[in-house]
Amino acid sequence: MTDAYQAVAAYWAAIEARDWETLAGLVAAGVFYEVPQTRERVTGREAFVRFCADGFPGEWHIAVERAVGQGRHAASWVRWSPGDDASQSGLSFFDLGADGLITRITDFWPEPYEPSANRAHLVEHY
Amino acid sequence: MTDAYQAVAAYWAAIEARDWETLAGLVAAGVFYEVPQTRERVTGREAFVRFCADGFPGEWHIAVERAVGQGRHAASWVRWSPGDDASQSGLSFFDLGADGLITRITDFWPEPYEPSANRAHLVEHY
């Protein structure tokens, strides 16, 4: 159980609890958040907490599938459930400062796609 | 530098080098590989190495953006470049056995999507 692991566990617990004060205490003042798929960026603690608090209304829940932390790096795989039977995987990579605060978050929210036919003989399709 | 980190670094180095013998030595006999987005699965060392060796022809390269390992869990974010200017992010989560061999790999290959308009005022678009 590294500090980086604890930071990520606390991060998702705060988001699931909509505890924005705790979330603010986990990220650095200059935290940098990015979603490469949509080319969205948020810079700074205040803007980031507002993005989390106001950007995702509804009765969703987050369950952590995997969390890994080592030194100043961490990663997580969560399952986001918006209330019906559907759920989506979210993958996040975190950098931390020397003080243990999260300085950078890169989020990915992959969606289903059609597998390549030219490798169909090499896989099982479930 | 944990064993889990070393295993993941060696895994991507072997794939980049097309060194299938080394790759085979990094995964357990019953390794389980899954791509949730396409619902593709591969089970067992021999089938997995064949999938890697034969499923992805071409002159692609892999660069590791982040690798994190802790105990029996690890995660990586790589950039896959198929030879032209394009590149795609790949996110992988690994479980390891007590012997340090990789027992489970879950891969995600996210593609661009349109950001939600209802949070456009909360982000910068780059």
From the structure above, extract its key features.
homodimer; 126 residues; alpha+beta; 6-stranded mixed β-sheet; 3 helices; 25% helix; 40% strand; globular
How does this model look, in words?
2 copies of one chain form a homodimer. Chain A is globular and about 50 Å long. Chain A is α+β, with helices and mostly antiparallel strands. Chain A is built from 3 helices and 7 strands. A 6-stranded mixed sheet of chain A has the order 2-1-6-5-4-3. Chain A starts with a helix and ends with a strand. Chains A and B meet through strand 2, helix 3, strand 3, strand 4 and strand 5 of A and strand 2, helix 3, strand 3, strand 4 and strand 5 of B. Strand 2 (40-43) of chain A pairs antiparallel with strand 7 (124-125) of chain B, so a sheet runs across the interface.
Give the helix/strand class of chain A: alpha+beta
Output the radius of gyration of chain A: 16 Å
Proportion of beta-strand residues of chain A = 35-45%
Counted by DSSP, the helix tally of chain A is 3
Give the overall shape of chain A, derived from the CA principal axes: globular
Strand order of the largest sheet of chain A: 2-1-6-5-4-3
